[in-house]
Write a structure and sequence with these properties.
Helix content is 53%, strand content 4%. The radius of gyration is 21 Å and the shape is elongated. Strands 1-2 form a two-stranded antiparallel ribbon. Helix 1 crosses helix 2 and helix 1 crosses helix 3. It has 9 helices and 2 strands. By secondary structure, it is mainly alpha-helical. It has one domain: Winged helix-like DNA-binding domain superfamily/Winged helix DNA-binding domain (Arc Repressor Mutant, subunit A).
Length: 180
């Protein structure tokens, strides 16, 4: 399972905002500091705003800022806002095997196996499968880690590295390696 660049960039943008939680930052500043396309950030921010993680301020001192303290925002909050479901497999969706099934199947009528499979989010064995249990454990473990980590903790971890929070160009990386 991979986390998308959308989530990576959204997480880094929120970390930038978390560095100055009492101020609004322009999206242009965040994009420049993180070497992220401004256009791409403009597509990401509405999802974070809809999730209640940030707010936009208009005017000369406008921009974006966190809507809650960094200690109150978890990595799970951020990834859920940007990725949607973190299910590693489609068979873990919230639907039970009978939800979403055509009425004929629920009344005992016959259906083709492929229709049953589509009605069960791609798996006819959903709810009675040992492999599905493994994916559920993976999801639970991942969510527990992401729920435990807050934006404040990520900022603290970054501070321990002793370098600013930002994406570096190859040239800047080489300069940091030589200096450190």
């Amino acid at each position: 399972m991979r986390i998308s660049t959308r989530s990576e960039y959204g997480l880094r943008a929120l970390m930038e905002l978390g560095l100055v939680p009492d101020r609004a930052l322009s999206l242009r500043d965040v994009a420049e500091r993180q070497h992220i396309s401004l256009d791409y950030l403009e597509q990401i921010m509405p999802a974070l705003k809809s999730a209640g993680l940030i707010r936009a301020r208009r005017g000369a001192q406008g921009g974006y800022q966190l809507s809650r303290l960094p200690e109150e925002i978890t990595v799970l909050d951020i990834l859920s806002a940007l990725e949607g479901s973190l299910d590693p497999m489609t068979c873990l969706s919230s639907a039970t095997p009978t939800e979403g099934m055509p009425e004929v199947a629920l009344r005992g009528g016959s259906m083709k196996p492929e229709v049953l499979q589509d009605a069960n989010d791609g798996c006819g064995a959903s709810g009675s499968c040992a492999v599905q249990e493994v994916w559920r454990e993976v999801k639970t473990a991942m969510e527990n880690v992401l729920r435990r980590l807050t934006l404040a903790e990520l900022l603290e971890r970054q501070h321990k590295f002793g370098v600013p929070l930002r994406t570096y160009s190859e040239h800047e990386i080489m300069r940091l390696v030589v200096v450190n």
